[in-house]
Amino acid sequence: MKLAVRIITLAILITGFARATVKIDTIGTTGVDLQNYGPVWQRIYYLSGFGIWTAWIKTGMWANFYSFTNHSWSGEVSVFGSQRNAGGNLAVCVNNNSGYYRSTFISSYINREPRWPIVAVESVAGSGIFQMRTPDSSLIDCQRPPITFTANNYLHLVCADPYTADTLLYSRSTDYGINWQDPIPVCGQLLPASPNYNLVGSELSDRLAVIWTNEESTALWVNISNDAGTSWSGPQNIFPVPSSISGAKPGKQGAFAIFDHNDRLNIVTQVWDGTHQYPAEIWHWQENRNPAWSLVYRFAPNSVLANAEPGDPFVLRPTIAEKADGTLFVLWLNYDSLNYEPQTQIARADLFIAQSPDNGRHWSRPFRLTGPDNYSRLCPEIASRVDDSLFIISVVDQLAGIYEQGHGGQTVNPVIVLRVPVSELPGVQETRQPDFPKKIYQSPTLLKSSELITIPLARGLIYDITGKPQKNIHQSGVYFLVNNHTTRKLIIIQ
């Protein structure tokens, strides 16, 4: 057969070939594109045999719960009711000796002067009925408070000074958020301007970690407590990464962390130079591993068709999860320069994932979970516990571009949870066969739409944008021609 085509030389995003059976539930809506200015905070939690907790920003914090007993979502609810509040996160008590076992706690802060952290707790685990704790005066003048539990049932938070915005303050509650200790600084003399920070606690011990950076810093700082916040190791800079990017930094998107089944701290972050949107990389750091850093994915095309959101690298906001056998999964947001929003000229973003069976030393090829289509995924996060499926929360933006940053109009967007069977994801060895040739055809060959070329439709020579082999092409679209160890991007115009 003959087709009218235009051949344009562009780098392609190589992914796994198969498409996983992804089940998607819409759990709520939001008009807020920028769910996280900085790093992702925990807003989804999965507990085998019981349910899935979720939280997001709408008009303040909202939540929904999926019951495995009822096989249904309870319905989206406003956590703090009429109390004006901004963004926070969720933490679930998973100690079965606790009276709050399997209850979710959600943090936020009063979004007016004085800024003041607030916490709400489910009255009955999984009920979706929240009661707000009386704000503790010791926390007055703090904002943006992520919370987490340690194994001894202490609830911890870290927050920023709203006036100077250059100090990270830590506090803990030994009675489930009723009373809080006077906050103390945990960043030492390393006072970051407008810090982007995260907090993670261990479910196995009293270990706790604060991770922070800022938009301009080439450092990523970690401070660890081994005794539930009583004492701290002191700030440690775990940068630089062994990247070829000059002046590599995490950027405003910061980092995300978990403690694994061996109680080791694992951190994932994006790496770029803070100016150029590519090259950009996803890196994984593991405590006491040598080498500590491993490269998950590098995005480094020769050119792109459309730019990512201004101020963002092409790959960003990674989160990490672990299966009981130690397999690690890293999820991230990946802008697709071949698929952009005509109104804003901004690339739409999709979700990609990779896995590692050996503590992050080797990673599978990226596997595309969503798109390409007319939507852009924002602020994704993977639930840190994994059994036979991955659970992922994300916002589906109907108009690519962050409204709060002046790009595109405001839309009411679905908040979704994806269920991805682990068995359908390619492993490290699986992704090496079959393989796209890694050489990209460089000669700028352009054909007018009226010109014809003959394409041999032998098995495996033409792939669609998802990497699926095509025997026959009957529709216009984007395809890839593989021949003689070169790859060409084909735009089919019929």
UniProtKB/TrEMBL annotation:
Coiled coil regions in record: none
Q: Where is the signal peptide?
A: 1-20
Q: Output the Gene3D superfamilies linked to this UniProt entry.
A: 2.120.10.10
- Reply yes or no: does the keyword Signal apply: yes
Q: Which domain of life is it from?
A: Bacteria
Q: Which UniProt keywords apply?
A: Signal
Kindly provide the name given to this protein in its UniProt entry.
Answer: Exo-alpha-sialidase
